[in-house]
Structures are given as structure tokens and as C-alpha cells.
Amino acid sequence: MTTIPTPGRLAAAGLLRHDCPRQRRRQVVARCSASRGKYFSSGKEPVENNPVTPMLQHLVYKIKATGPITVAEYMKEVLTNPAQGYYVHRDMLGEKGDFITSPEISQIFGELLGIWFISEWMATGKSATFQLVELGPGRGTLAGDILRVFSQLGSVLKNCDISIHLVEVSQKLSEIQALTLTEEKVPLERNAGSPVYMKGVTKSGIPISWYRDLQDVPKEYSFYVAHEFFDVLPVHKFQKTPQGWREVLIDIDPQVSDKLRFVLAPRATPAEAFIQHDETRDHVEVCPEAGVIIQELSQRIALTGGAALIADYGHDGTKTDTFRGFCGHKLHDVLIAPGTADLTADVDFSYLRRMAQGTVASLGPIKQQTFLKNMGIDVRLKVLLDKSAEPSLRQQLLQGYDMLMNPKKMGERFNFFALLPHQRLHGRSHEINANQSKPSPSPVAGFSELTWQ
């Protein structure tokens, strides 16, 4: 059992988000509410349902010039191309967007993650300073909920110097994050050419900085959070054939000049090196960029301490074809109208574990339902319901809880995975002398049941 401070202050009515009426009325819709069957095949749609988008034109020119491209290159272009990328110039989150995430559904999600970081900070000695680093912060909703918990438990954190660091490539989303998180009376510092392209102060007075790359975040004692971040990193897709593994590429359909199709590479390609020698599946997706980020996180945590908490769609090395698109909360053919829909692939947590290479310890993946239950979501829901007199708000809380916990919705489709220093789990056995007993580190919240006091 993991023990954390009394939740009395956390449960205070002041912890309720100051939602505007429109936010309170929002429908609880989730990206995973759509069917998640196989979606690798393409080309069934009639030509009139395949509008020629600027991104499609760009890709056709590119393929004509250099030949078929990998799925990874396709994802990178479609999602983050500086001129036409899906993530770069639009707000795709929320009821009016193409998908909605757990923090947008219920404030409880972010609050419990805030408790997780405080619990880990306490379990590892209450460092005098720490950075909270979020990868892909969306609209800033999750960071806002975590910061509210930090404020409510200010007496616990009063001697700790906290700073917020957001890694965000989208200029549009960074502006929305700033509106969500910062004090409007304190102007933002902007420097487009600097690794820290924006700086400010949060509403609770904490310094906050924006970066385009994790590498630019200072290497100091940090807690990292990545929620629905890894699932949009570019994947290479491979199919097993009688000739061995062949990479799935994207080419122009010879029958229709402005239509794309999947083809198999005629020979082995370099990314094949990422496939395990003993792989038994006949179709695999590998994400080298995820591996690079996990190695960077692992080295940072091993060097300076802290922890990383990752929550995402995923599996433990069991699934095959998970590449799919979402538009207007519905599944969307990945090759149709590129640039107008989100592209995603389930995270292979077994690959993330391998990429940590033993530099740090890993926990999970465990189902979101289990993690949130261990974190005390039922207790927190009851407190909020008791504090809420407004029927529409109570209904929103119950709907949000169902979306997060129901196995048929998000409860079993999302997983939690953590990276921690080895000594966090096993104690500093190399410091033990003959007169000392082995340390007994406290269990990690969420991955074991949490005790509310």
C-alpha cells in the first residue's frame, strides 16, 4: 500500500475546475469510442470521397520525385509538416475537433496524475526542486489539473521550487496552452529562434517554458508525463513474406493519379533492423523515434532522478496492424484527404521496455482502469459528487468516470507505463554495510493500491 498526504485539501470544493457553461455542457466523446478493427487496407472509397488536399498534392509531388515513401515518413509529413501539417496549424482537440482526450473528459484524471507525482516526490526524498515536463501537452488541460493539485497541496510542496516545461511542436496548440495556464497580466516572452521559444508564469506563479524538442529541456531532477504522445510518433510497418520481412510503403495508385495506395518494398529496408530476431507476428509496427525518446528519458532519470509516467493506447508486443486515422471522432481511411485527420498507431510497450535497455526500471503496462482505481478514483468521485449540487455537473462527473473506467471505452484500451531509477524499486543496496538492513522502498502509487489517509 502506498500512503500519501491527507486528501482533505485535495477534495476541497476549490479543486473543481472553473468551467464555463459551454464546457460543462460538452458531450463526453472519445477518440477510442470508434471501432478499432483492422484499418490497414485502403482504396475502397470512391474517388469523389477523396478530395485533393494541399498535403495530398505535396505527397504526390514528393513520391513522383523520389519514389514510394515509408509509413513513418508519411505520418511525419501529414502530422508535422511546417506548412500543411495536421498538428501545426489547428486545434484538433475537443468536441469540435477530431478526438478528445482523458483530461478533457474529467478533471479527476489530471488530479490523480498530480497526486502520483507528489507521491513519487515524497517517496524519493522530497527534493528541494523539481521540473514537471510534459511531452505533447494538448490544450494544457492536463497540466492545469496537475497544477491545481500542486496549489491545493501547497503546504506539502511549500519548500519545493517547481518549474513547468512543455515540449510542443505546434504553434497553435502552444498558444492555447498559454491561454489555459498562464497569468494574462504577465506578458509572455517570445523568441522564435531560441530552443526556449516561449516563457511565462502560470496562474499560480510557477515559471513555465516551451520547447520544440526534449533535448532542449534542462537536464535536472524532473518528473515527465506523456499522455497520448507516443501513439502519434511515426511508425514503420512491416509484412512478413516468403522472401522475409518487407516494409509497407505508400505509392501513387497507377490507375488514379491523385490517389495513394500501400505497396510492399521489393527488398529489405534499413528500418528492418528494429524488428526482433524472434518475432512471431506476421505484421509489425516499429517506432524508432519512440525508442530515441525513451532512451533520452531513461538516461536523464538515471542521471538526475525523477520518473516518467506514460499513458497511451497500446499493447505489450501482441498486436499487428493498428495504424488508423480519426476525423470528427470517427475512423478515417489513413490515405484519404491527408492533412485533415489525425493519424495514430498503438504503442508497443514491450518495445519501450527494450529501449530503456536496463538503464532504468520500468513498471507496466497496466490498464487505465486498474491504475486509476489504485489511485483512488472512486474516493475522489464520491467527494466531488458530494460537493456538487448542480445536476448537470454531477451527470458530467458520472459520464466522465464511465468513459475513463468502462472496459469497453477507455478503461482497458489505455495503459500506464512508468520509468523510474532502479534504486526507487530495489533500494540502494550498494550503500548497505554489515550493520544495516536492506532499505524497503515504498510501492509505487497506481501500480499498487494507494491508501488514503
From TrEMBL:
GO molecular function: protein-arginine omega-N symmetric methyltransferase activity
UniProt keyword annotations, A-Z: Methyltransferase, Mitochondrion, Transferase, Transit peptide
Main location: mitochondrion
Record carries keyword Transit peptide: yes
Gene Ontology annotations for the cellular component aspect, listed alphabetically: mitochondrion
EC number in record: 2.1.1.320
Family: Belongs to the NDUFAF7 family.
Record function comment: Arginine methyltransferase involved in the assembly or stability of mitochondrial NADH:ubiquinone oxidoreductase complex (complex I). Acts by mediating symmetric dimethylation of 'Arg-118' of NDUFS2 after it assembles into the complex I, stabilizing the early intermediate complex.
Subunit field text: Interacts with NDUFS2.
Record-given protein name: Protein arginine methyltransferase NDUFAF7
Species assigned in the record: Cnephaeus nilssonii
